[in-house]
């Protein structure tokens, strides 16, 4: 495909107008201000459109779209125990498969080319993800409530098996990560073992860290240290790690995360909705921590629309700090793109340059809310809607374009999701 006469979001977060970008065999094969020679197949008229790198949802639980709108306005522990866990126990393979595809469709609709996900029934999810064509770092959520028996738990050994069976599926688009769900659902022995196995296998880690104030207080009572220090001391951060939330960090935590190169996946919408608080993102950026952006699950968001999070990410820390200069539009866009790619161990993705994988998104610039085009970057962060996405491409393959899904039978998926959810709610409501 050849994108002709299109505006391009460049690596320094400025915009180049009137550009030509050619895609061949899954890669960006040409970038320039002149039309390239040769036959590029399909042509995309890029006038009044913006080509950006693919966006990355750095923390999600994709099949939780099944719980959208079901459990609202409850504190976290009651939300989990009374609503989320009983529902999740009843998700069968059909619903897990359809839910994963629905999530992939929603993410692609909003320009997400890759996501970092923690959930369950991983082979079923993997099948759906590979079919969707999206990229994903996937792990089985590991919870260990009984310290003596964790080695027999299937979800402890599962990720090791999945690494052998599923890592690299879909021409390398699917990667398997290792996981600890969180400090409050873990046991130190299990954390140390997962850390050791991750090091041996050279894989990434996905973990929830310091999401709520009560979680941090309970951790300090149990272990005499913060969750960040707990995981640090057990060696979990010795491998590249994505730590979701990090809302309630303490003084020393910032330096520990920076030292280990941990990526913080900020989830501002989910944290607000569950009344967990606000991560100190300005301080993280100042400390040089790699901050990426995540939606979390649709039970607490309620979308997988990264643009909703991007807008909040770019505005709420100004309001919280009283300083309108914190979190610039460029920093917000970096969090939603290149920082997420880096966190997934896909460092060649997230930029529009020759040789890079063609993970690309086209935005409509011709909507009323994108005029005048005084500063397209400011418009993109503060004025654009996720639904302004016209095209989402992963490894050169179009996933979504102008109302049409190319890899997902969306009507069938919607039908299956409704049917599966109705069946579960017939039992648990
Ligand atoms: Ni989460």
Describe the protein's architecture and organization.
- The protein is an alpha/beta fold and 429 residues long.
- It is built from 15 helices and 18 strands.
- The chain has helices at residues 76-88, 93-109, 122-132, 154-166, 188-201, 213-223, 227-233, 251-260, 268-273, 281-287, 306-321, 329-336, 338-343, 376-382, 410-428; strands at residues 2-9, 15-24, 27-32, 43-45, 49-53, 55-60, 112-119, 135-140, 174-176, 178-182, 205-209, 241-245, 263-266, 290-293, 360-364, 389-394, 397-401, 404-405.
- The strands form three sheets. Strands 1, 2, 3, 4, 5, 15, 16, 17 and 18 form a nine-stranded mixed β-sheet that branches. The chain has a five-stranded parallel β-sheet with strand order 10-11-12-13-14.
- Helix 2 (93-109) packs parallel to helix 3 and helix 2 packs across helix 15.
- It is globular.
- It starts with a strand and ends with a helix.
- The mean pLDDT is 95.
- Nickel (II) ion binds next to loops.
Query: What hetero molecules are in the model?
Result: nickel (II) ion
Strand proportion, as a percent range, falls in: 15-25%
Structural class: alpha/beta
Q: What is the distance, rounded to the nearest whole angstrom, between the alpha carbons of the first and last residues?
A: 49 Å
User: Please, what is the average pLDDT?
Assistant: 95
Got a strand count?
Answer: 18
Total helical elements: 15
Share of helix, binned = 25-40%
Unreliable segments (pLDDT under 50, ≥5 consecutive)? none
Radius of gyration: 21 Å
Please state the overall shape, judged from the principal axes of the Cα atoms. Answer: globular
Strand count, sense and barrel status of the largest sheet are: 9 strands, mixed
